[in-house]
Every structure is written in structure tokens, then in C-alpha cells.
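User: Okay, second chain of the day. Same drill as before: sequence in, C-alpha cells out.
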Amino acid sequence: MSSPETGHDTPTTGTPTADVAERARQVRARLLGQVVRDRIDTAAARYGPLYTRAEIERRVSESLPLRLGARRTAVFQPIESYSEQRIPDDVLVAYDEALASHLFSRFWVVSPAYRTEVQADPWILGEVNGTSLFAVITHWP
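Assistant: Same drill. C-alpha cells below.
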């Protein structure tokens, strides 16, 4: 087909836009980097900013007040082995919804601590599959 502006042939697929979008989605699904990028974008849209482990450690530890002579830290535990306290029902439901999203490879309960003395107010984090980024799923007092 010749373009009226240039007189040159212009490529056309003859494929409606919806078909092109679907085909692009299928191709993207086969490209690991694109799949990871989609997971990152989706996790950020659903759960807010994503953080590195160092950023999470800083944010969680800063949730504690300063205590003279005590270093504030964050203790990470796999959610499957967390037994410090009973996880509230609404927090379990939020975890289950995040698990069902298939965006995350692992889930952690992160608790603020003075050195290794764990305090209240744990957070549940999802580790975005294929990355070293974390989403804050929820936390509870």
C-alpha cells in the first residue's frame, strides 16, 4: 500500500489493534525480563512502593523509638515458621490474596527488634518473584 504523503509503501499488518495487543502479550509472556517487569509493575500498583532488603530493614527498625545503648534492627522470618504471636484473621486474608496473585516467590514476617529482642508490630512482606524487591503486604500491632 502506498502512503499518500510519501508515495512509499507502508507496512500494514491488516490485524486489528486488539489482536496486536494480544499477540504482544503472548510474546512478552515468553520473555523472562518482560515477565519480571510486568510483575514489578503489577506489585507496585497493588501494594505501593517496592523496597530492597536494606530499605525494609531501615524502615522497620525506624518504627521503634530510640533506646540508649540498643541497636534497632529488623528480624526476618519465613511466614511458614512464624510463631511469635497469633497472626490476626484479616492479616491472614491479606496474605492469602497476595499468595493467590502469584507475584511473590516468598513471604516474610519482619519484626522490629532491639538487637535480637523482637518487639510488637510485625510486617508481612512479599518478595517479588525473580527480583530482590519486597512489597509490604500488611502489618499489625
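Strands lie at 50-51, 72-78, 104-114, 117-118, 123-128, 134-139.

User: Thanks, on to the next one.
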